[in-house]
């Protein structure tokens, strides 16, 4: 398998955004309408359709500075929002929509979407949730495995930091981040296995491709995966944040962790890990967010999520890649100490839905859902 070498620790970000009807606040199957306008733009390559029609993806170019990444991403999202608003639509963050019913999702008329439907039936509709992916450049195959193993070990903390999917199908799920539970039902979804070297990675992927359920790494829904065609390691577990600024901070933090892994300052522990501990830690991150007690396999110990974050931020502070990234990582630490996205989503809905009326048996109407979505749409670029 050819590995396209890239400059070490360059990085990029992908944001999957919700398309909503501004009048009702409901998800709108309108990516095709937006795409018709986007195709006329010189920056069309920075946008992408997804499997279902209520999603649009914005992809940054390759960066070495998080401030430059934010400037570009903000411009791309602003352009997209302007197009959407002219059609009575809007865009918002969050990993799920409060009225996200899988059976109401519609497949995009692309070859890729039809292939997914053929292979997995209803599952791609169920998985039409909204995530953020971060790519970090690595110089070669050995480094890709080295960095991917370490970043996979940190995924419970990544999930907790980005938790923004407490609702599905009009109810509170009881989880701060319900979205990362979805890929677990796929035969090649969930945590990336610990991989010894590139030869083992090729053996595993050859066995996966032999099943017929996957033709490329695009069909392997691991939390973290090497991307040989880009020369990167991709982290896929983040919910799309409510604010794009937080997304950039998460990307800078991911890059900082990758730098520590590449330099050997973060390494997998040789301590034996109790059965299923890392999977349990991932579950607790989904359920409790930054209030979780997580297993840090690099230290071989359970600890509060905020304590784990503090240890990593301290290490990044001692080895900053650039001033902008250092500032972003410190901002993320501050965000983690405050109200989390899942908390904001719950508090916003509780305030708008009129609990008094709900207690009297009056269910919220479209005006409440519209108000809820408008608040989140306004947060995206705030």
Overview of this structure, please?
The model has no long low-confidence stretch (mean pLDDT 94). Strands 1, 2, 3, 4, 5, 10 and 11 form a seven-stranded antiparallel β-sheet that branches. A two-stranded antiparallel sheet has the order 6-7. It is globular, with a radius of gyration of 20 Å. Helix 2 runs antiparallel to helix 8 (244-262), helix 5 packs across helix 8 and helix 10 runs antiparallel to helix 11. It has helices at residues 31-38, 66-85, 111-120, 123-126, 141-153, 155-162, 198-210, 244-262, 277-288, 305-318, 323-337, 341-352, 355-359, 366-380, and strands spanning 11-21, 47-49, 55-59, 89-92, 131-137, 167-168, 171-172, 189-190, 221-222, 224-227, 232-239, 293-296, 301-304. The protein is built from 14 helices and 13 strands. By secondary structure, it is α+β, with helices and mostly antiparallel strands.
Using only CA atoms, what is the Rg?
A: 20 Å
The rounded distance between the terminal residues' Cα atoms is 42 Å
Largest sheet: 7 strands, antiparallel
Enumerate the spans where pLDDT stays under 50 for 5 or more consecutive residues.
none
How many β-strand runs?
A: 13
| Count, helices | 14
Order of helices and strands: EHEEHEHHEHHEEEHEEEHHEEHHHHH
Mean pLDDT comes to: 94
Which structural class best describes the helix and strand composition?
alpha+beta
């Amino acid at each position: 398998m050819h590995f396209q070498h890239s400059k070490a620790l360059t990085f990029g970000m992908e944001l999957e955004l919700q398309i909503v009807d501004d009048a009702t606040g409901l998800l709108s199957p309108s990516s095709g309408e937006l795409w018709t306008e986007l195709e006329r733009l010189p920056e069309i390559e920075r946008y992408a359709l997804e499997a279902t029609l209520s999603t649009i993806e914005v992809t940054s170019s390759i960066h070495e500075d998080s401030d430059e990444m934010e400037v570009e991403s903000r411009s791309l999202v602003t352009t997209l929002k302007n197009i959407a608003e002219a059609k009575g639509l809007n865009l918002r963050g969050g990993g799920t929509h409060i009225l996200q019913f899988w059976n109401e999702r519609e497949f995009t008329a692309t070859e890729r979407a039809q292939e997914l439907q053929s292979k997995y039936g209803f599952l791609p509709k169920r998985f039409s949730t909204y995530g953020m992916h971060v790519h970090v450049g690595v110089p070669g195959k050995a480094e890709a495995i080295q960095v991917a193993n370490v970043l996979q070990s940190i995924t419970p903390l990544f999930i907790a930091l980005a938790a923004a999917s407490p609702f599905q199908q009009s109810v509170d799920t009881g989880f701060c981040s319900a979205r990362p539970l979805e890929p677990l039902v796929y035969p090649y979804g969930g945590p990336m296995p610990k991989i010894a070297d590139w030869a083992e990675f090729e053996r595993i992927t050859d066995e996966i491709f032999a099943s017929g359920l996957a033709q490329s790494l695009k069909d392997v829904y691991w939390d973290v995966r090497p991307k040989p065609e880009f020369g990167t390691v991709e982290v896929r577990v983040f919910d799309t944040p409510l604010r794009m600024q937080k997304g950039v901070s998460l990307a800078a933090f991911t890059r900082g962790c990758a730098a520590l892994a590449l330099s050997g300052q973060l390494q997998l522990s040789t301590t034996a890990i109790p059965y299923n501990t890392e999977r349990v830690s991932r579950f607790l991150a989904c359920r409790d967010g930054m209030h979780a007690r997580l297993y840090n396999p690099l230290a071989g110990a359970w600890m509060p999520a905020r304590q784990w974050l503090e240890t990593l931020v301290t290490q990044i502070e001692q080895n900053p890649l650039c001033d902008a990234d250092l500032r972003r990582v410190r901002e993320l630490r501050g965000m983690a100490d405050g109200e989390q996205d899942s908390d904001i989503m719950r508090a916003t809905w509780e305030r708008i839905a009129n609990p008094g009326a709900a207690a009297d048996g009056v269910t919220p109407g479209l005006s409440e859902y519209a108000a809820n979505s408008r608040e989140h749409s306004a947060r995206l670029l705030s």
